[in-house]
Amino acid sequence: MADINHFEYGWITPALSYALSVLGSILGLVCATRIRAASSTGQKVWWGTLAAWAIGGTAIWTMHFMAMLGFAVSGSRIRYDVPITVASALLAVLAVGIGLAIVGTGRLSAVRIVAGGLFTGSGVAAMHYSGMAAMRLDGDLSYDNLRVGLSVLIAVVAATVALWLAVTVRRGLAILGSALVMGVAVNGMHFTGMSALSVHLHEERGEIVGAGVGTLLIPIVLLVIFGVVGLVYALLAAPTDEDRAAAAYLDARQTPTAAGPPDVTAPDPVGLRARSTLARPGAQFPSRRDHPPR
Questions:
Q1: How many CB atoms sit inside 10 A of residue 152's CB?
Q2: Are 151 and 196 contacting, i.e. CB atoms less than 8 angstroms apart?
Q3: Residues sharing a CB contact under 8 Å with residue 161, sequence separation 6 or more, in sequence order
Q4: How far from the centroid of its chain's Cα atoms is residue 183's Cα?
Q5: Could you report the per-residue pLDDT of 171-230, keeping only the tens digit for each?
Q6: pLDDT one-digit tens code per residue, 246-263
Q7: CB atoms within 10 A of CB 272
Q8: Which of 10, 56, 107, 111 has the fewest CB atoms within 10 Å, i.e. the most exposed one?
Q9: Nearest Cα to 10, choosing from 72, 59, 86?
Q10: pLDDT mean over 130-157
């Protein structure tokens, strides 16, 4: 059995993986708050997609790969199968997206949150172990079933809590605190699953086919940078509640009020209006001496 080191570069890789989890969770929770405020189905789908990308892509999958940078097996190099690696990333985003759709449609209930947590947690666990299956090295992988089951349980509980936070948390400090908790849960699931792994090296060493860590690191870092920048831009460009209220106020000020019909004075060729005025109580009638002589 080969010696395994999960922290080859010390505290750097776990610290970066935790920071990515927290960053992705913050962006995902903020996008989730926009889902509740959306007024149309298209807007809900848009913000749900961004939230799934932030949580599934950044908080979960890139955290997984960043932590894998510190994984080493003595006596063997490590390569990765690119199609399986990409499929694991898509699996994480899809699992989170479906979980958000479960809890975000219809009336919120405990049944929906539990169902979404079960589905999303199972998808996150499948992402983790498919990502492990993408590894290529001079040995065979085996897992301790008890720790695998524990990691799946942690993934389900973490996903359930994450979905509940996504549909209930609204304010800035609460979002930050929730993201810190989600980062602990995601990293806890990852390293619990990694602790279940053991490697038995082959007696005869062969050529290892696949992409190296350095080959995958550059596109993943660029993907994270552009993804985070795009999410931040989408959040900043989207109108807030204050913007909508101000726009509604301006529209109300610019809309002309309905005016009543204009006053129309009927013609009075024979002086009836003047006579009716003189006929009112208290009116002074002209005397004969006021009339000029004929």
A1: 20
A2: yes
A3: 117, 181, 182, 185
A4: 15
A5: 778 888 888 888 888 899 999 999 999 998 887 777 787 777 777 777 877 887 888 888
A6: 556 666 777 655 555 555
A7: 10
A8: 107
A9: 72
A10: 91
Which distant-in-sequence residues (6+ apart) come within 8 Å of 280 by Cβ?
none
**d(C-alpha 226, C-alpha 62), whole Å:** 13
d(CA 126, CA 34): 28
Which one, of 13, 143, 130, lies nearest residue 82 by Cα? 130
Task: Kindly give, in sequence order, each residue whose CB lies less than 8 Å from that of residue 108, ignoring residues fewer than 6 positions away.
Answer: 167
Q: Which of 187, 189, 217 is nearest to 17 (CA)?
A: 187
**What SS3 string covers the chain?**
CCCEECCCCCCHHHHHHHHHHHHHHHHHHHHHHHHHHCCCHHHHHHHHHHHHHHHHHHHHHHHHHHHHCCCEECCECCEECHHHHHHHHHHHHHHHHHHHHHHHCCCCCHHHHHHHHHHHHHHHHHHHHHHHHCEECCEEEEECHHHHHHHHHHHHHHHHHHHHHHHHCCCHHHHHHHHHHHHHHHHHHHHHHHHCEEEEECCCCCCCCCECHHHHHHHHHHHHHHHHHHHHHHHHHCCCHHHHHHHHHHHHHHCCCCCCCCCCCCCCCCCHHHHHHHCCCCCCCCCHHHCCCC
Contact 108, 167 (CB under 8 A): yes
